[in-house]
Amino acid sequence: MHPRCIKCNGEHAMRDCSITEKTEEPKCLNCGKKGHLAAWKGCKALPVIKKTSDGQSRKSYAQAAAEQKNKEEQTDRKDASLSGRGT
Ligand SMILES: [Zn+2]
Ligand SMILES: [Zn+2]
């Protein structure tokens, strides 16, 4: 499973992205709008985790939650590294 960069949609982790500076108008890869990244929870195109009652395994839900948590951690890392770097 390849990591997916939310900045350029490339197959690398966001921290490995060649785009290091903070963009004032990031373009969302989910909905195509500018002003927020694809990981933004307010994005209307962000895939939401629905509770299903049709007998789907609990494991897939837990995996989805774990991935969501991982996404948040990556965002936190980005903010920390950028704020410490300056320009
Ligand atoms: Zn990238
Ligand atoms: Zn969006």
From TrEMBL:
Chain residue ranges for the region called Disordered: 52-87
Regions of compositional bias (Basic and acidic residues) in chain numbering: 68-80
Lineage top rank: taxon: Eukaryota
Name of the protein this chain belongs to: CCHC-type domain-containing protein
Organism: Araneus ventricosus (Orbweaver spider)
